[in-house]
# Entry
Amino acid sequence: MPTDEFLKNDAFLTTELLKLAVESAGIGVWKVDPRTRGVEMTAALKQMLGIPVGRTVDYAAFFAVLHPDDQDQARNDLGAALTSADGLYETEFRIVTPTGEIRWLLARGRAFFDGEGEARKARLFIGTARDVTDGKAALEQQQMLLHEVNHRVKNSLQLVSSLLRLQARRIPDLAARRQLEDATARISTIAHIHQRLYRDQDIKRINFGAFLSELCADLQGSASHCSLEVSSPDFPVTTDRAIPLALVVNELVTNAFKYAYPIDGSGAVGGRVKVAVDLHIGGEIAIAVKDEGVGLPGDFTVAGGGNLGMILIGSLLAQLSGKIEVRDDGPGACFVVTVPVNDKT
# Structure
């Protein structure tokens, strides 16, 4: 096409610019006819898949290139797009190149339909594919480093906790010893968060229900004169919210151990402490910590709780945009903490 005609042909210019952009970005384009199962690919995509440029491709040839463990999932994802309401498609899968190398591809696409209701049929599917192997390798390395960081933080916190515990045993003053023991419990709670982050694949959030059970099991070990019952569904909480929320639970449970069932002879010898978690439809977590002990003083208020534990709870809940209330729920004391599942700030 002569230069002057090329510049005047907007459709041709747009097509060539789009083609240049796609090729520059290393993106392969493909088209599928769901009726014939015929597949058309750009040369860039065939090169990415290790398929000769002149070779005709169909469903079988395309899926044969995929890693055996990913073929069923890729078929299911494509089939879902061809029957879904919006026809959108996005998936990741591995391919095995002719040299035996395994590469990761990110594929996106959309199906187009004719007809309505039961007569609605997919007539065309177009999609793109991009090699994301380097990005996934970098992400895996980052996750591995973060897991290692969490492991080392956990070990360091456990060392500090052990040192404080040893120091507490050497202090004759009972009040000072209990303060060190409280500090030790708080540090151990944070260490357990990092321990779980080291074990889990997801480094951004933890299963709070499972973590709460582990935390309470450890707290139970520090108070043999009480029994601790936990009831919580499994749900994810981001790490930056899990740590202060776990510390709040730690404070409420240890306060119940100390004040509801004191071991100095001023109250019941021992009893139950219950921790119950509910997820509200409005996107809030409600955590109730209840005992059946001696109860609260008549003039007790949350704002004027006085001890360091209640002050710490107030500070942590301010970070979480949460609140705490005392409920009259039978014998003993019942504290209910309510916080949003997600950060609203």
In short: The longest helix spans residues 133-169.
